[in-house]
Design brief:
five-stranded mixed beta sheet, 11 helices
Length: 260
């Protein structure tokens, strides 16, 4: 799909005929959000829902909460709504348009965006997902912390882009081998710090030594010690510093230098 302006036709469609693909790339409907839109609805500035006509059906790729708000204002009943209808889009193209849109009601979360990009077969997102799942770790699109689940999707994806797939996978593998996927080991601070450590010291550190020392330390303690540093070291560096201290604690003579 090119960046050229897509042709569309404005037409009225009954909401009963519009499908919201929530089980592929769309996020789930949030009733409270639809009620909030309904409570402040102004026809003069209302956005037109964007709909793709595909395989004889209408699929909403933007505006599902606006559609629901209109139904609320109509007593919960279906009604005719003016939509922007696009033709000739594949489901993958719909997903990518959804991933790129920035609606005024709510910006896409990292989970929403990556899920849509994966559905849209975006190569970078697909490779990121495949690399993560190859280690038995799943992306949690609701962005919650859990065992063998990464909720910090934006942090993980940014790390993947920054350090490259090989170093990203190695960082996650070390986390898995050290702590067996316990929830706090996959906090954004630990994931970012480990990826940076592997990338920064990739030809210098002893993997066995790192693993042995990490296993003696709880990831939640690493997080808390990093937090205690306050503003003495910025952002992820205070957690990277904790990992460096852990690595160096067993042998000062072969300690790694501070390089950040």
């Amino acid at each position: 799909m090119t960046n050229q302006k897509l042709p569309y036709q404005e037409m009225e469609i009954n909401t009963a005929e519009i499908i919201v693909p929530q089980y592929s790339y769309q996020r789930k409907l949030e009733p409270w959000r639809a009620k909030l839109i309904a409570a402040n609805f102004d026809e003069r500035i209302a956005n037109r829902p964007k709909v793709s006509f595909r395989d004889g059906n209408y699929y909403a790729f933007d505006g599902q909460h606006t559609l629901e708000a209109r139904k609320i204002l109509n007593g919960g009943k279906d009604l005719m709504v003016t939509c922007r209808v696009y033709y000739g889009l594949t489901e993958e193209e719909e997903a990518m348009l959804f991933a790129k849109q920035f609606g005024v009601s709510r910006a896409l979360s990292a989970g929403d965006e990556i899920r849509a990009r994966v559905c849209g077969k975006d190569s970078e997102a697909v490779n990121f997902l495949r690399a993560t799942e190859s280690l038995g770790i799943n992306l949690d699109y609701t962005q919650n912390l859990g065992e063998n689940r990464i909720g910090c999707i934006r942090t993980a994806f940014n790390a993947y882009q920054r350090v490259g797939e090989e170093n990203y996978v190695e960082a996650l593998r070390i986390i898995q081998e050290a702590w067996e996927g316990v929830p706090h080991s996959l906090r954004r601070e630990i994931v970012r710090a480990m990826a940076e450590f592997v990338n920064l010291y990739q030809r210098e550190y002893d993997r066995d030594r790192l693993l042995e020392n990490l296993k003696k330390n709880d990831p939640l303690t690493i997080y808390r010690k990093g937090m205690e540093m306050g503003i003495r070291m910025a952002g992820y560096k205070k957690y990277l510093y904790q990992i460096l201290l852990i690595y160096n604690e067993s042998d000062e003579q072969s300690a790694l230098p501070l390089k950040f």
